[in-house]
Amino acid sequence: MSKPLPLVFTAPRRGKPPTHLADLDLEQRKQTVRDAGQPAFRADQLARHYYGGLTRDADQMTDLPRAQRQELVDALLPELLTEVRSIACDAGDTRKTLWRAHDGTLIESVLMRYPDRITLCVSSQAGCGMACPFCATGQGGLQRNLSTAEIVEQVRLAAAAARDGALGEPGRLSNIVFMGMGEPLANYNRVLSAIRQITAPSPAGLGISARSITVSTVGLVPAIDRLTAEKLQVRLAISLHTPDDELRDTLVPINDRWKVDEVLQAARRYADATGRRVSIEYALIRDINDQPWRADLLGQKLKQHLGQLVHVNLIPLNPTPGSQWDASPRDVQDEFVRRVRAQGVACTVRDTRGQEIAAACGQLAAAGA
């Protein structure tokens, strides 16, 4: 019998975001258009502009009657996020944006260009209730869940920015990682709805391949099993950070509910159902979780539970201001990688991005506008 979800999963209520096309099913969209005095097919036209044209600018919607364009946009495509500021680094290849929602909530997204792809790190909540002590977002606590449309809108805005050359040369947004602010699986229904719209073929959705989407979790076992049952081709990433329960109880407090072995067993069920390798996220913290014996134990546990269906993403810690936590020295990092690989488990060090622009999740929002 699965354990009950902890109360921390319930987000505090703030102002409800305006109703948006991305929050509605097809019939609800049509009814909203009818309520505005227009024929139902206008809903499809608006969807084509939003998902296919990446716009909510009424002036660009020349197939709509001029007199009603703005009214229709206001009814189904209200402004959800306004840019507070954007900062760039890595020779223009990384761009972090702080957004303000309708109720003043601040959230972040990070757009990154790599040689073979353009990736968006997207937020699923404002703040986070998981309380991991080394994470800037966790330090701030949970404010509220984001709506489906607020998640989709981050992707739409990033896709338009990439297309319009925000990272230099114009390009196509190809990859999405749910590794921004929040625990995605604690906002399960809205994240799942957003994924379906992100992956639906244009013009019904943004047309990004499910295999190019990664959903990260600290290890909410019942939610992992729900995601397994969906049979999606998204990649699952587990924020493990240590292989032993004693330390993980401190680093990832939800470990009080679901221990390391339970989380890895759920990850194996996901891998078996989808055929996709699971990514293990491991933030390497100096003198905390970087000991050689922990590298050995990590490799052994992953080999036991996941075999070849796993890859370790070692993350050099991006320290937050005033934090006691720091990144491990390079020689310690290299030895950790060597020991994990010696157990027959793939292990690489993630390319660090944006340290000079506070790119760790929650740092920009914590600094405010």
Automatic annotation (TrEMBL):
Keywords: 4Fe-4S, Cytoplasm, Disulfide bond, Iron, Iron-sulfur, Metal-binding, Methyltransferase, rRNA processing, S-adenosyl-L-methionine, Transferase, tRNA processing. Residues 114-356 form the Radical SAM core domain. It comes from the Bacteria. CDD domains: Radical_SAM (cd01335). SUPFAM superfamilies: Radical SAM enzymes. S-adenosyl-L-methionine binds at G182, E183, S216, S239, L240, H241, N318. One of its GO terms (biological process) is tRNA methylation. It is found in: Cytoplasm. It catalyses: adenosine(37) in tRNA + 2 reduced [2Fe-2S]-[ferredoxin] + 2 S-adenosyl-L-methionine = 2-methyladenosine(37) in tRNA + 5'-deoxyadenosine + L-methionine + 2 oxidized [2Fe-2S]-[ferredoxin] + S-adenosyl-L-homocysteine; adenosine(2503) in 23S rRNA + 2 reduced [2Fe-2S]-[ferredoxin] + 2 S-adenosyl-L-methionine = 2-methyladenosine(2503) in 23S rRNA + 5'-deoxyadenosine + L-methionine + 2 oxidized [2Fe-2S]-[ferredoxin] + S-adenosyl-L-homocysteine. Reaction proceeds by a ping-pong mechanism involving intermediate methylation of a conserved cysteine residue. This is Probable dual-specificity RNA methyltransferase RlmN. It comes from Nakamurella aerolata.
